[in-house]
Amino acid sequence: MAPVVETLEKLERKMTLSLPMETIQSEVSARLKKLARTVKMDGFRPGKVPVNVVAQRYGYSVHYEVINDKVGEAFFNAANEAQLRVAGQPSINEKEGAPEGQYTFDAVFEVFPEVKLGDLTGAEVEKVSADVSEAAIEKTIGILRKQRRTFSQRAHEAGAEAGDRVTVDFEGKIDGEAFEGGTAQDFQFILGDGQMLKEFEEATLGLKTGESKTFPLAFPADYHGKDVAGKTADFMVTVKKIEASHLPEVNEALAKSLGIADATVEGLRADIKKNLEREVNFRVLNRNKTAVMDALVAKAELDLPKAAVQAELGRLLEGARADLKKRGIKDADKVTIPDDVFRPQAERRVRLGLVVSELVRANKLQATAEQIKSHIEDMAASYEKPAEVVRWYYGDQNRLAEIETIVLENNVTNFVLGQAKVTEKALDFDELMAQN
What we know:
By secondary structure, the chain is α+β, with helices and mostly antiparallel strands. The protein is about 45% helix and about 20% strand. It has three domains: about 5-110, 2-Layer Sandwich (Alpha-Beta Plaits); about 150-245, Roll (Chitinase A, domain 3), CATH 3.10.50.40; about 260-435, Trigger factor, domain 2 (Orthogonal Bundle), CATH 1.10.3120. Strands 6, 7, 8, 9 and 10 form a five-stranded antiparallel beta sheet that branches. It has a four-stranded antiparallel beta sheet with strand order 1-2-4-3. A two-stranded parallel ribbon has the order 5-11.
């Protein structure tokens, strides 16, 4: 007989199930006998401990394990028989006054919701595009040249200019008191690179070697140093050395130093363009994918399983603590992080996962083996030895699963863009790259 399923509220359900105590006791006895063959106890040879002695010491824990195993088995068998899609783990409570010879319990749990996708033809999605301009290539070349610049000491009488590397001593005080991080000796920075606050750089510009200057500096309210954020300090800076920067010429030598196979200026530009196009395509795809997912969530109707949200919340909190640990935060695993910090993100992830899953199921958008193979080969083509990259992906199921997820999301993106009202928008290269 199919189990009776009681609806409590929205996604919450309850089943009352029973197990014969005889079955539980039989399994307990079997496990104690098996344990007696391996357990080590003082006064007995291995394998010769009487079962009743083993039961005295381990009976309770074995009984607890058997109850857990049998209850879990009974619940999931009943859920399958009732064709329920259970979300999360059930809450199990033993019932009082059970019939003799029976272990009776209530299982309270949630089921996954019905997802109503809505009419995607009414969804509005902004689809962006971007090209790699000559200006973007020039800008990248400029960055590469800066990364390889050299420095030579300026004449003693020369003032510091933008682009120079200066070595300074400085001391800052707030209300006449020195503060942590406000004093340094032989500190180097490059004028114009934004390493220092604007007021500090402006005060240093024009100073000659050996000259000093006193100036006020207002720390921004959102400054990373909380002790000085929003306060004004009095600084004195003394220039000890000024070095002029020299950028390498854009020539074959630069191309060669960058490992360009075709070590010519044309080869350098072509290689930069190819890399920029790869990055642009990646960012455009992610931007459009996000717009599609936003449209999907906006159109869909569903209730969220609390258990699924709580599980996702746990993963996010665990990830946050792991990140703090990597940064060297002491006792990162004990840091208290309020649930509210990640709850909106957890709810969105669960909602999006359920909506995408339903869309994929309803429209057969699963990633095919051919699509996965094609995606891996496209990625591998940019490497020196593509065949090795392909083997690397196919050598690990987790890596393959990651690619499968990417392909599936691309299928969803393309499907929705084919259904929705799409507005095309061309982005400037710098605008695209400035976005997170």
